[in-house]
Design a protein that fits this description.
The protein has about 120 residues and is of the alpha+beta class. The protein has three helices and four strands, in the order αββββαα. It is elongated. The two termini are about 35 Å apart.
Length: about 120
């Protein structure tokens, strides 16, 4: 396991890379480090990584919903890939089954791509 890095050094690296230090602090209990906005627009904590900053209950529900959906899609994609692997090991498997599962993976990846754009 990699040793924990010094948050001060990480903050310096973030600033050097063009990130902007924000007035808000990390919402993780006990952290209290400032958040940084990357050039990509993402908000990160030097210790906890990507953070979703919400100001209303509606925003919190949306972030929770997107996070949950992302988790579900990851699990579904893993299941589909395991199924494809299993089907590819069966000599007399119906190729249409394999194609159907490949289409499932393609649709999942398309949904994940759409979610990243939001």
């Amino acid at each position: 396991m990699e040793p924990a890095r010094d948050p001060i050094k990480i903050m310096a690296e973030l600033l050097k890379s063009g990130a902007v230090m924000l007035a808000e602090i990390c919402p993780v209990e006990g952290c209290n480090l400032p958040l940084f906005k990357l050039k990509s627009g993402e908000i990160v904590c030097p210790v906890h990584g990507k953070i979703h900053v919400v100001k209303t209950d509606e925003e919190a529900r949306e972030v929770y919903s997107m996070t949950y959906m992302s988790h579900v899609l990851d699990r579904l994609e893993a299941l589909a890939l395991r199924t494809i692997e299993s089907l590819s090991n069966i000599p007399d498997a119906d190729p249409t089954d394999l194609i159907k599962w490949l289409e499932v993976v393609e649709r999942i990846q398309r949904l994940k791509s759409m979610m990243r754009k939001k």
